[in-house]
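Data deposition worksheet. Section B asks for the primary sequence of the deposited chain exactly as it was used as input, without tags or linkers unless they were present during the calculation. Section C holds the resulting structure in token form. Section D is free text for depositor observations; keep each observation to a single sentence. Incomplete worksheets are returned to the depositor.
Section A, Depositor: J.P.
Section B:
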Amino acid sequence: MPRPIEEFKRSLESVAAIANAELIGDAATVITGLTLSSKDVQEGDLFIALPGEKHHGAKFAADAISQGAVAFLPI
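Section C:
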């Protein structure tokens, strides 16, 4: 998966507001990247969990967190 070209740093609060999602966790948590795949998580990422053909991405949230994601957003 491609990573942002420019530095990406946003608070969990600002990302939740952009996504119009309920904030769960520390609003001041800094997110440095985004990913849709738990296999591609890098330290500081927000894991965005989408519904899939067989499973919802939320099923892989624990894997994403263990690999360095600082938060996850189930959609």
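Section D:
Residues 10-74 form a domain with the Udp-n-acetylmuramoylalanyl-d-glutamate--2,6- Diaminopimelate Ligase; Chain: A, domain 1 fold (CATH 3.40.1390.10).
The first strand starts at residue 10 and ends at 11.
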